[in-house]
User: Fold this.
Amino acid sequence: MLDSSSRLRDFPGLADIAYLNTAAESIPPQCVHEALERYWRDKTLGMRGREGHFSAVESCREISARMTGLRSREVSFCSCSSEAYNLLSSALDLGPQDEVVVTDLDFPAGATPWLRAARPPVTRLWKNSGGALDAACLQPLLNERTRLVQVSLVSFYNGHRIAWQPLCAAVRALAPKALISVDVTQALGRVDLDCAAEADILISSTHKWSLGIHGGCVIGVPERNAERLTTRAGGWYHLGNAFDADRFERADSKTGAASYSVGMPNFPALYALDAALRYVDGVSVAAISAHAGPLVAELRAGLLELGLEPMCPLDPALPTGILAFQHPRSAEMHAALEKAGVHVMHHAGRIRLAVHGYNTREDITRALAALRAAV
Assistant:
């Protein structure tokens, strides 16, 4: 992942392209392919294959807990972050007397369940300033009625990485009844999760920096919040009495993280995630960040030289894998990048570039050359 030989061995699909789009979709390593084949072999055993299936779930739970700084019993899985947030909404069961704070740099999955609730709480918007979220702008939004503050550790939109301690201190001081929910989809597997010890719930999709595939989501609920964050969903896998004699009289849910796994696990996604996270852990997030950080800095400097202003400031103390810029000729620039074999995200005048551990200096040079020609 971090040198030419391991890169070609583990990511053969990267041989002829500069892939700078991990914030949308990762390129999984070969071990994920092998894990999916293992799932298939287990699946062909029918019911007997479930021993392998549930063993993979527990193995994935262990490595997911280790990567998020939690204990295995504090981690569970569902199908995607959208499902996780809707289940969180059911757990909180908020009403018009309650308030929720969301940010304008967040992904819709974390911000919209509160707008769609049967009895919507008051939703307050923490707006960015110059592409960054300032805790001083959060403080006026917090009060005794605040029940949830929803943030992304790293923004999918522009790559801004939130300063965790000022955020946490503001919430604990000014909204003592509020929980802090953190989406780490754009961080898990790429940067250190400095929020892990104090966040009240962590949520992450599995097909981006963690190098897994679609259909999975990691939910981390510390035991101190288990009762408070138990979902109110129906189902069976998360119930303690799903097949007991009284199953049609009451539904006794497991508490905390376990309550978010309401149905049969998506076994292929968890086989894949188990392999992917163990691969990332073997390389180490610290090594990935140390390798990719200078590439992000070089890319940023190159963009500025071309007059392409990144959409958020870069704080060297808060590393991120994403850079984005807006330009009226972004469509032409995107076409030039694609022609040069450089894959990035382009949407509504915005180009987003993402740098992971499998990227190289040549990828950055190639991207900047294509942009220079377009400019």
Summary: The chain has two domains: 4-20+284-374, 45-281.
